[in-house]
């Protein structure tokens, strides 16, 4: 297996990242969410100008392996919120999340952020715990009339009383 290359998002990545997002939800999260929950979470792959802008307005990191996109993570600097963390199902468990997260946290620290927040899925929660994140609370969300859950999590990057 070849190395994972992490780079900044390019606008032309948007459609493929939408497909990765949808496949990660519909296929990758099968063990944790029902088919109705997964459909409510992602009915189809997001695309178009709004999706492209959402990724472009954040600090979005993209993972490539052998010239193919295999995952992405996005950090909204203004809110210190890790918005997206998705890996193609065939690449799950192969270090893609670790590679993406290393660059994302480095960027957050370089920007002087003191803490990060995210709303992690059942699938992503163990990954974030391994990265030193803290579970705040389980959340129940209703989408399209279907209840699903995620976890509000945070990670302190800089001690609050550090000089």
Q: How would you describe the overall organization of this protein?
A:
The protein is α+β, with helices and mostly antiparallel strands. It has one domain: Gcn5-related N-acetyltransferase (GNAT) (Aminopeptidase), CATH 3.40.630. It contains five helices and seven strands. The chain has helices at residues 14-28, 35-41, 49-57, 96-110, 125-130; strands spanning 5-8, 59-65, 68-76, 81-87, 115-120, 134-143, 146-156. It has a seven-stranded mixed β-sheet with strand order 1-2-3-4-5-7-6, sandwiched between helices. The longest helix is centred in the N-terminal third of the chain and has 15 residues, at 14-28.
Give a short overview.
The protein is of the alpha+beta class and 163 residues long. The chain is built from five helices and seven strands; from the N terminus they run E-H-H-H-E-E-E-H-E-H-E-E. The protein has a seven-stranded mixed beta sheet, sandwiched between helices.
SSE layout and pairings?
Blueprint: E1 5-8, H1 14-28, H2 35-41, H3 49-57, E2 59-65, E3 68-76, E4 81-87, H4 96-110, E5 115-120, H5 125-130, E6 134-143, E7 146-156
Parallel strand pairs: 4-5
Antiparallel strand pairs: 1-2, 2-3, 3-4, 5-7, 6-7
């Amino acid at each position: 297996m070849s190395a994972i290359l992490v780079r900044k998002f390019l606008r032309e990545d948007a459609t493929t990242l939408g497909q990765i997002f949808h496949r990660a939800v519909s296929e990758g999260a099968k063990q944790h969410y029902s088919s109705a929950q997964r459909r409510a979470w992602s009915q189809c792959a997001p695309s178009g100008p709004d999706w492209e802008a959402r990724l472009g307005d954040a600090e979005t990191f993209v993972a490539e392996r052998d010239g193919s996109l295999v995952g992405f993570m996005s950090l909204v600097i203004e809110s210190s919120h890790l918005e997206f963390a998705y890996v193609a199902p065939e690449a799950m468990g192969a270090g893609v999340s670790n590679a993406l997260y290393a660059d994302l946290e480095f960027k957050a620290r370089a920007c002087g952020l003191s803490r990060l927040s995210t709303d992690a899925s059942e699938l992503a929660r163990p990954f974030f715990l391994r990265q030193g994140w803290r579970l705040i609370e389980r959340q129940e969300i209703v989408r399209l009339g279907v209840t699903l859950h995620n976890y509000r999590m945070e990670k302190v990057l800089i001690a609050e009383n550090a000089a």
